[in-house]
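Reviewers of the previous submission asked for a worked example of the structure-prediction workflow described in the proposal, so we include one complete record here. The input consisted solely of the amino acid sequence. No template or homolog information was supplied to the procedure at any stage.
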Amino acid sequence: MPDETTVTPGGRTAEAVEAIQREMTAFARRARASAGRMHPELSLVSYTLLGHLEERDGCRATDLAAHYALDKSTVSRQVSALERTELVERRVDPDDHRVQVLHLTEAGRHILAQVTESRRAAFRERLADWTEEDLVRFAAYLERYNAWQEAAPGEDQG
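From that input alone, the workflow returned the following structure tokens.
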């Protein structure tokens, strides 16, 4: 028999799940919109890819596609746009000359740092009146939610 913490149809739990879905959709929509305001040429996807390249100190486009469960053609279009704006460059892999590795350019590092600081400032402002306990709990819930691994690659479960 399910207890009150089990996600089942009906009751307060179903209402809570609906509220979570609705609020996460609003969060995603706001994140996409704010990305354009922070840097007009840098979409949320581009920002995410640049962040991954910085974190990994470069990687192949196929690695980006696999990591984010995106179609290779989607990543290819994004990377091409980042190359045209000179935020990303391709370099030959020193261990395998057949492979090209994507790296941030200095301009890419600069724009990523600017946008990252703008995003952090926006989060700090939005969360300014939250208690430390609320922030820690919210962070833990988001980490727990995002750690769920059951979805198949490329399948968005929300």
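Residues 48 and 112 are 9 Å apart (CA to CA). We consider this example representative of the routine output the project will generate in years two and three.
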